[in-house]
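User: Fold both of these, please.

Assistant: Here is the first one.
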Amino acid sequence: MIRGRRAWAAAIAVLTVAGVAPTGAYAAPVPPEIPGATATPHAGDALPPGWRVAGEDGQSHLEWRAPEPVPMGDARVEFRANGALVGVPEPQDDGRTFRLPLDEVRTADLDDLQVQAAGRRLDEAPGAGASRQAKPPAPKLPPKLPAGAVDPGKAGTYATTTGEYSLSSVKLPGLPAPVEMRGVVVAPKKAAGKRPVALFLHGRHATCYVPGKAEEISIDWPCAKGSKPIPSHRGYLRDQKLLASQGYVTVSISANGINGQDWNAEDGGAQARSSLIRNHLGRWADWAARPASAPAAVRKGPKTDLSRVLLVGHSRGGEGVNRAVMDSLYKPPAAQDGYRSKARWNIRGTVHIGPTIFGQNPVPDVPSLTILPGCDGDVSDLQGQVFTDGTRGVSRGKALHSSVYMVGANHNYFNSEWTPGQAKAPADDDFWHEPESPDPLCSPGATGRLTANQQHKAGATYIAAAARLFVGGDDRVRQLVDGTGRRAPSADPARVLTHAVGGNRGAAFLPDDPQGSPKVSGARLCDAVAPGRSACLGEKDPGSSPHFAQWRPEHEAGRRAVALDWKKPGTVARATPKKPVSVKGAKSLALRVAVPPNTSGTRFDVHVKDAKGKRAKLGSVRIDGLPGTDRTTSYWAQEVRVPLTAATRAKLNLGKIASLELTPKSRSGKAWLMDAWSWKPGTPAVKAAPLARVDIGRLTVKEGDSGFRTYQVPVRTTGKNAGAVRLYVVDPETGKSAGRLVKVGPGTAGIKLTVKVVGNKRYGWDKPHDILVKAVRGTVIGADAGGVTAENDDPMPKVTVKPVTADVTEGAPLTWRITLSEKADIEIWALAQLVPVTGGRPELSTADVDEEWLSQLVEEIPNPAVPLSKVEYGTLWTTVPAGGKTADLTVPTIRDQVKEPAEYVRFQPTDDEGAPLGPPFEGTVRDAP
C-alpha cells in the first residue's frame, strides 16, 4: 500500500555521472513484486502489484497494467485513492495498460490506490474468486407478475424497409479527427401521414477490427489500413423493426469517431454525443422541409413528424441522449457545442439502456425509462438509476422517470453487434465470469441468466413500451413501467421489476429533500456516498446499490436515504418532514424500499399521522429481496403502495400529513427507505420548465516565477429563473472536497470562485484546482466539473552522481551521492540498473550484500549465490525528496570469512523505460585484512 504521494510521485531524472566523494546511507531497490516500480526502505511505501511509473516523450505517467486485456466498454476506467478520483487514465493499444500523466494526478494523498470501472475493482489480485464459496446456492427469482392490459412487444401491422445513409463527417469541439455521419434507417411501408421518429445511439465499444483475426480489435479512429469499422449502430435492427412495424421511422447512428477519441474528455464524451445526435436531427429537419434532398434510405419511408421524437441510448449513448435533450431545451456554451442551430424538434421521451451518467445530471422535465441489467459487467454499479433518483425535487416533478430492473441481463446483449455469434466483429459476454467460481445468478448457463435472444427481445419490448407511453400517449402502458407490478408477456421469460418517480405522484417524504431533510427516529438518515459510518451501505453489507452509485466526490452531502436496522419486531421508524405534506386527491401512498438481496418475508405496517396527532394504519407490505450475489448490484428499491382509504376513514387531515411510520413485523432485518409519494393513476401532460443552466469551464494558466496571481473559475449560468446547486471545491493536496448549497441565476450572487496560484522557480507537477456542481432545485447542469489548472513552467533539475565510498572493504557500504542542480517541489527519481562487470573481473554476488536489502531484489535468496547483475529485479530507484538536493544510493556489503579477490559491481543509469543514460559507474569491494 502507498502511504502517500511522496512515496512515489517523483520525476524520473537524467543522470550525469561525476567522479568525487564523501559519506553514505541506504538506497531503495525495486521491490520484487513490482518490476520497474519504485521502492523505499519501507516495504509499505511500495506501489501495489501491477503499478509503476513509466515515461514516454519526456512525460512521466502513473501506469497500471492488467494481467489480461480489459474489454473496451462504456464504464470509465478510473484511478482512485481513498475513494477520491485521482484521474482518468488513457488506455493503451495492448488493451492491458492504462496511463495517467503525473501532472494530471488530482490528489497528493494516494493511500489505497485502486483501479475502478463503475465501482468495480479491476486490480484485485488474481485468484480472488478462488476464495469464494465453491457452489453457492442459486438465488430465487422473483415471481412471474400478472400480464398488463397491453403488450407493446407485439409486432405492429406495417411491413418495414431498411436502408443506410452516409454523409460528410463533422468536426466536433475537442476531438482531433472528424466524426462520421452514418445512420441505418428502418421505416414502415405505406404508413399514412407524418410518423414519429425514434433515434438510437450505441455506446462505447471497440471501433475497428481486422476480419478473420479475433484478437485484432482497437479503439482507434480513423481505422488503420486493413481494418474495418465495427458496425455498432447496426446492433439494434430488431428493436428498430419492432418500432417501424408499429409506425415509427427509426434511425440508429454510428459514433465510432467519438468512441475513438473521448477517453480524455472531462464529461466522457457526453457533449460530443449530444452534438452528433443534434447534427442528425438537424439533417432530418432539413429533409422533412425538403424531402427531395433526403438520401434514398430516408425517401423510402413516410414523412416524419419531428415534434414527436424518442431518443434511445445504450451505455454512454444513454448519457449522450440525456445531454441532447438538455442541449435542445437549454443551449450549451457555444465553444463546447458541435451543433449551433436552433432545435427544430421536440423530444417526448428517452430510453437509457445500461447507461452511464458520469455527470449525474439528468434532465428533470422530459420523461425517461432506464433499463438496469441485473448482470451488467460493464457499467456494473448501475449508475443509470440516477436518471430516476436525480430528478426528485429539481423541477415540477410531472415527467415520469421509470427504472426497469431486468434480472439476468448483461450489458452487451442489447446490441447484436456486441453479441458473440451474432456480431461481425469479435464480441464477448461482459459479465465477469470466473470459471473456477461461477456466479450462481449471472454466469453463462445459470438459472437466472437470460440468453442473448431472450435479453434482446425483452429490451425491445420495453423500448416499445416507452415509445407507446411517452410519444403515443397510451396510458395503459404505464402499469408496465411505473411500479404497478404488471408484465409485458413479450419480454418473457425475463423477470422484470419497475419503480418510478414523477408522473401523477404528489407531495413526498424525501430523505434528501432540497427544502431540508426530515427528522428521523427509530432509524437513521444515511449518506448515499460517504467513507465512514454515515454511509448507507457499510462493509458488512455485501454487494452494492444503484441508488448509491458514486459520483466524483468521496463524500456527497444532501444525498440520503433512511436506513432501518432492527433486532426485534415493533421498532417504529418515523420520518417527519420540515413541513406537513398534502396527499389530498391521491389514491395511495407509494414507497420505494430496498431490502438485502435474497432475503424474503420482510414485512412492515405503514402508518401516517396528521398535524394534530391523529394516526391511521394504511396497511401492511411485504418485500422480498432481489436475487443477487457479491458480483451484482442488487440493493434496489421496490415500489409498494398502500391505499389512503384508512386515513380518510379515520378523518385525518390529508392536507397536513406530518409524519410517516414504518413498523417492522419481521423478527430482525434491514431496509432502506428511498422516498414515499402520494400517488394516483394517470400520466399528466409535461412541459419543460425554464430552468437555469450551469456549466463549469476549465482555465489553464502558467504558475509564473514569483508572487501569486488570482484567477476566477469560469462558470456560465444561463436562464431567466433562479435555482440552487450543490457546489464542491476539491483540495488539490488531499483530494478531499467541501460542499455547500449555492443559489444561481438572476438576482443571486451565483458561483464566484477564485483560485490563488503561487509562482516559483522550482520544478513540480501541474496543480488542478477542481470544482464540481450538481443540480438541487430549479437547475440543470451541463459540464459538471472544471476549475483552474496551474501548469508547471520550470525545467527539471539536472542530476549528477558522484562517488562517496566507491572502493571499500567488505562490511562497509558502497555509496554514491545523487545531487540536483536545483531544489524541486516534488521528488526526483534516479534509476540505475545492475549490469555485468566487464573484462572478466569478479562480480559482487548475492552472498556479499545485506539480506534484507537483497530481499527487495529477489523473490527468494539465491542458493547458491549469483552475481548481482543476475538478480530478478535489478533496478535501484533513488529518490531525492521534495525540497531537497541530495540523496545517497547505497549497496550494503557484509563481511565474510572467505578469502577472495577484489569484487566489483557495475551500474548503468537509465530512464524509466530502461534506456541507457550516460556512462556506467562502478564500485569495488576488497577483502577485509
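And the second sequence with its predicted structure:
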Amino acid sequence: MTRFGKTGAFAVTPIAAACALLLWSAAVQAQEQAQRGEETPAQVVVTGIRGSIESSIAIKKESDSIVEAITAEDIGKLPDVSIAESIARLPGLTAQRVAGRAQVISLRGLAPDFGVTLLNGREQTSTSNDRSAEFDQYPSELLSGVTVYKTPDANMTAAGLSGTIDLRTVRPLDRKGRTIAFNVRGEHNGNGELNSGWSIRGKRLSVSYIDQYLNNTLGLAIGYAHLDSPGQQKEYKSWWWGDQNNLPAGNEDVVALKGAEVTSTSRKQVRDGLMAVIDWKPGRDVRSTLDLYYSQFDQEEIMRGMMWNSHQWSAVTYRNPQIETIGGVRLLTGGSLVNLEPIVRNDYNERRDEMAAAGWNTKVRLNPRWTADGDLSWSSAKRRETTSETYAGLGPAGSGVTDNDFQFRIPVGAGLPQFTPSIDFTNPGIVKLTDVGGWGHDATMHHPRVEDRLGAAKVNLRGELDGFFRDLQAGLSYSKRDKSHEDVSQTYWLKNNRALTTVPANIIQPITSLSWAGIPGVLSFDPRAALDQFYDKRPVDTDVAQQDWAVTEKQSIGYLRLGIDTDLGPVPLRGNLGVQYVHVDQQAEGKAVSGNVITPLRDGHSYHDVLPSLNLNFDLGNYLHDTYLRLGAAKTVARPRMSDMRAGVSAGVDATTRMWNGNGGNPQLEPWRANSFDLSLEHYLGKGSYLSAAYFFKDLKSYIYNQQRPFDFTGFPNSSAVVPLTNIGTINQPANGQGGFVRGIELTAALQFGMLWERLDGFGVQASASGTESSISPNGPGTTEKLPGLSGVVANLTVFYEKHGFSARVAQRYRSAFRGEVTGLFAQRAFSEILAEKQVDVQLGYEFQDGPYKNLSFLLQVNNLGNEPYQTKQGSAFASGAYAPERYTTYGRQVLFGVNYKL
C-alpha cells in the first residue's frame, strides 16, 4: 500500500525554515544590540493564571460588542492542553470530543457550521468536509489569545450566525524587549497499550522568539510547536435494537441487540506547527504586519476487535435468555447466542492534514483624522486520508461454522456489557481471512480527499467625527473560496477465487486483549501486509461517486459603520451602527450517477443580503459603579454546508411507476438567515472579578433540511431499459425550509477572593452556566429530532490558587445530552445522540520567582481526570419513549509533566 511520501534530503521543511529564521533573527539582534548602546528598559507584564484572567476581562470590558476572551498566561502558554478545551470553558460555548480530543465548537446551541473561525481577523479554510474548523489543527502554544464575538459588527466581513471565533497571535511591536520561551512536556495515556507496539507515551515541545529591531520599528515573532500524542481507545457499540427475535413463545415484544462490536484502537498523532509575524512601523503614520502560519498533522491508527450480526434474518437463536423491563420496555439483557458468526477486524487508517495561511495588513494615517488600511489574505487546507477494513472469522457467511455458546450480559445502568465467546478467536488455525458478514467483498479501502482554498482582499477607510458619532468606517471586501471533495472507494477479493486464507506467522502480531469487555482477545496481524499479499483489487465502486464535488463561492461585501460615543443624560453610551450589502455567486460541480453510468453535472446560483447591525453599551456607573448594559441587534447569515451544495445526484427510473427518483445535493441553496437580539448586564469588581447575565434570541427565518422535491431529469443518464413516463421526477435533497428560534440565558462570575478577605489572596473562582432551547425541527415540520449541537444546559467551574510561584487549578466542564454531528459511513456526515458529559481537569505548577532559576517553571496537567466515558444512545426511541444504549467509549486519563523556561 502506498504510504505518504517523504521529502528529499535537501527539501525545505517548516522546521528548517524556523531554524533559519531563528538564526537570522539572532544575527540581526547582535547587530542591533551593538547599535543601541544600552538596553531598553523591560516592560513589566503580569503573567500566570490571574494575569490571564485580568487581560481577558479587560478585553470584554472595553469591547463595543458582546464578547468573551481568553489570553495566554505567558508566551506559548494558554490555560489548557488544547485551544478547543480553553474555548469550551467560555459561557455558551461547548466542545465535542472526536477520538478523545476536543475538536469542534458549538456556539449558543447551534452546530459548528453556524459559526466562523478567523485567524487574526481573517476567515480560515478547513480540513473538514464543510466549513467548520477542526481546532486540533491549531497548536495552543502558538496563540496569544482568542476573542469570541457573540454579536456582529458591520466591519467584520467574515462573521457567523451563532458567533465568530477569532484566534490571535502575538504582535511583537506591542511588547517591549526580547523574549525567548521554551516548553517541553511528556505525556502518558492511562488506558494502557491496547495494541502491541503502539506507545502510551508522547511528547510536546515548543519554542517562541519575540524581539524588536531598528529602534523598535521592526518586530519579529516566531513560534514552533511539535506534538507527538498517543491515543488509546476502548469502545463498545451496539448496531441496533428491535423485536422479532428467535425467542420462546410469549416473548414477541422483547427487544434485543441486533449486532454489536467491541474494539481497541491505538493512535499516533504527530503535528508540527509554525507561526511567524513581521511587524513594521517606520513612523507614527504607517504600520504593516505580515502573518504566516503552517501546520502538518499526521495521524495513524490501528483498530482491532470483534463484531457480529444477531438480527432476525440470521440463524442466531438464544439459550437461557434473561429479560428485564426497563422504562416500560422488555429488554433481553443476558444469555447465550447460538449459531453466531463473529467477525474479527484488523483495520489500519492514516490521515495527513496540511494547513497554511498568510495575511498582510497595512494601515496608513492619511491626516490627523483619517486612516486607511488594506488587507490581503490567503488560506489553504488539504486532507489526505486512507481507511481500510479486513475481515476474518470461523468461515464464510452461512458456512455453518459458528460459536454456539457466545455468552453476553448487558448492564441496565452505566458500564460496559460483557461478552464471553466459547471459541479461541486468537488461534490462526481457526480464524481465517474470509467474508464472514456476507457483504460481497473480503476487504475495503477508502481514500477521502479534501482541498480548500480561500483568497480575500479588504480595504477600509476610517474617519474621526465630532458629536453623537465618534467615527465613520466604510469598506469593501472580496473573497473567493474553492473547495473540493472526492472519495475513491475500493473493494478487495481474496485471491484464488476468494479462498479461505490462513494468516501466516510472519504477519501475526501479539494478540489484542478485549478483556475489558469480557473477550480474552482476537487474532492480530498487520492488515497492510495482508492486503498486499492475499487480496486482489476490484473495480472502483461507483456508489459513492455522487459524493465527489467541487464548489466555488465568490463573495463581495460593501459596508458602512458609524461608531457611537455620546451621553444620554447621566448615562455615557458607546457602540456602533452599521450595514453590510453582501452578494454571493456560487457554482457547484458533481457527478450524475445512474447504475455504472457517470456523467458530469454543473449548476449554480447567486443571491444577496442586506445585513444591518447595532451594538450599544450603556455605562451605568452613575447608578452602580463599573456596571454596563449592552444591547445587540442584527440580521445575520450562515452560508450553507458546502457538501450540501454539491451538484452530485444519484438517480434511476422505478420499474413499477416508470418515474424518475433520486437523491443528491442542491447548488441552489441559500443561507440560513436570522434576526438576532442580545442583552447583557455586566458588573465589574476590579481587574480580575466581574458578574454578568446575558439573554439571546435568534429567530431563524429558514432552516436547511432534506426534502422531497420535483426535479427535471432531462439529459440525466438512464442505465436501465425502463422508459420514464416523464422527465419530471422527485429528488430528496437539502432545501431551505421552515425555521424557528434559538434562545437562552448565560450567567457568569469571576471572583478573586483576596478582595473579600486578605488571607484568601491568591484564591479565585470562575463559573458560568447557560440554558438554551429551540423550536426548530431540523428535519422539517412534524419531526422530533433535536437541533444538532444544542445542549440544554452547559456549565463550567474553575477553582484556582496562584501566589509566591505556586499555582493550582481544578476545572470541570459539563454539557447535557445533545444530538451531535459525527463521521459516518464513507466519511459522510451522520448524527448520534450523545449523553451528558462531565470532565474534570487538574493543573499544578511552580515558577521560581528569583535567583539563578528565575523564570523556570514546572507544570503537571491531568486532563480527563476521571476518564469520563463518551456515551451515546440509539437515535429513535421505543414506543414507551425509552432509549437503548448505543456506544460506550473511554479514551484514558491524559497526564502531562513539563518544564517551561523564559529568557
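DSSP finds five helices and 45 strands in the chain.
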